[in-house]
Amino acid sequence: METPPSESSFEETVKSIGELHGNMAVLSKLDAVLKDLNTDISEPERLIQSDGAISGTIVQISNSPLYGFSEKSDSIATALQKVGYNQALKLVGMALSKQVFMRDLESYGITADSYWRYSYFTAVFLERQAKTLGLDSDEAYLYGLLHSIGRVVINEILHARQIEVFWDRFIPEKEWELMTIGFNNHKAGALLLQIWDFPPELCKRVETQNNAPAQSKDPLICLLDYARSLANYLIDPPRLKALCKPGAHPIQKQLKLNANQLYKEVTEIESLVDEVYASLKDC
Fold first, then answer.
1. Which residues form the HDOD domain (predicted)?
2. Following DSSP, what letter does each residue of the chain receive, concatenated?
């Protein structure tokens, strides 16, 4: 069994992983830039262009069937003009999700496809429902996309240390993580986002996402709890329909959707996830 790390060694380990995926910091910087009302319109372009890999993927996505434009983009400027600057955060999120989320989490027994679909579905669901609740939809999108990134940290730590330990689903995930490596993925994810300079409130939400979410005073934590349940049962239509019925989760009272509307919303998001996935696979 792995000896639990000290606080300092834990931070150093997570920092080293953060450096491996340093371009994720572009997402946090872009979020800050887009929220600044005084930002020059060319600033998002310059920021995205600072990473060649992201730039290339974004241009490809804008030219994909996902957006359906006949005229092709050949630069970040034309891609953003065509798709819309209000889509910049989502475009960068898509591009980065391909790099960070489309990888197998062997230690958890989760395939790259499953992990990406789970994360992206959660992001879109939170983004859409946040608008209903009068919350910041970009903030909700980032929370949904990044809430489980701590699993990447733990998986990479175990891989780097050549520790072949696999999550037994009969043991709660948090308990298995603590026994195996000494910290849970929520704490690891929050620290990683902090290293990438994401807003403190986002880091806090990631770390506390499992602290009695149904009773949380934070609607985004409660909404995430519901979104995770839905995402986990997309392959089980009967169970999914049951989760859409009134009373299945406390947050439903605030969403203003009946069971049929909610189920339709979920299936529409699932179709969108399929479209985005196909576009990213072709990039």
1. 20-212
2. -PPPPPHHHHHHHHHHHHHHTGGGHHHHHHHHHHH-TT--TTHHHHHHHTSHHHHHHHHHHHTSTTT--SSPP-SHHHHHHHH-GGGHHHHHHHHHHHHHHSS-BGGGTB-HHHHHHHHHHHHHHHHHHHHHTT--HHHHHHHHHHTTTHHHHHHHHHHHTT------TTS-HHHHHHHHHSS-HHHHHHHHHHHTT--HHHHHHHHTTTSSGGG-S-HHHHHHHHHHHHHHTTT-HHHHHHHHSTTSSTTHHHHT--HHHHHHHHHHHHHHHHHHHHHHHT-
* Interval 119-172: pLDDT, tens: 999 999 999 999 889 999 999 999 999 999 999 989 988 887 777 888 888 899
- Is residue 14 assigned to a domain? yes
CA dist., res. 252 & res. 271, Å (int): 22
Domain CATH for 113: 1.10.3210.10
Entry pTM: 0.90
Half-sphere exposure of 84 (CA within 13 A, CB side): 5
Q: CA-to-CA distance for 152 and 17, rounded, in angstroms?
A: 9
Range of the domain at 115: 7-281
Q: Residue 167 falls within a domain, yes or no? A: yes
Task: Evaluate whether residue 2 is within a structural domain.
Answer: no
